[in-house]
Amino acid sequence: MDTKKLQLRGIRLEQFTITYNVIEGVIAVTAGFIASFVSLIGFGFDSGIEVFAAFLVLSRLRAQFYSGEFNEDKERKALKLIGITFFLLATYVTFSSIRNLLADTVSEVSVIGIALTCLSVLIMPYLGHLKMSTGRKLGSRLLMADAKETQLCAWLSVSTLAGLVAFYFFSWNWVDSMASLVIAVFAIIEGREAWAGELACDDCDCIGKCTC
Q1: pLDDT tens, 2-42?
Q2: Which of 59, 74, 177, 198 could pair covalently with 97 via S-S, beta carbons 3.0-4.6 A apart?
Q3: Residues 125-142: pLDDT tens digits?
Q4: Which string of b and e fits 139-175 if b means at least 16 CB within 10 Å?
Q5: Is the pTM of this model over 0.85?
């Protein structure tokens, strides 16, 4: 597949990411407030972070697609901004997890939340795989960084779903909080790598085209 087709695929993936996460975020936050489920509200906040990261990648991919020029300085700046989104994700997940563990809030079962996170558990891993595959073929650090963020969001979907299901059956309100704290650690690690411009470069020469 030639570069233009790969860039167009990347653009379509980011457009889908933005559309899906806007809808997901609105539903998650609304359902979270209705059920007083802190982790579900945090899940919606994460969707907003994903939208911001996807918008950054989309703007750079569109610039490359229409101009055909690779501006390394702008790529690095965008990559640092994506690194910041990882830190924001880690900060909020940590905050919401600790708050959820300490709060005496009486939560309610959220069937909508369970259905939404089930859908995300199915969609996000595949979306992350497509982004990573396309990013490696393009040699795009930005697309690969966003793929990493999508993969982390997939795990956050799993932890949120586990918490919702555990609360549904056993009234346990702490399962997703503990899992989310582990995810926050990985978010910090990925954020540091993105900030340094090293994310997803294990097997590839990320300056220019991928060699793997």
Answers
A1: 888 999 999 999 999 999 999 999 999 999 888 877 778 87
A2: 177
A3: 999 999 999 999 998 888
A4: bbbbbbbbbbbbbbbbbbbbbbbbbbbebeeeeebeb
A5: no
| Domain covering 3-196 assigned CATH 1.20.1510 in the classification | yes
89: amino acid identity, one letter: L
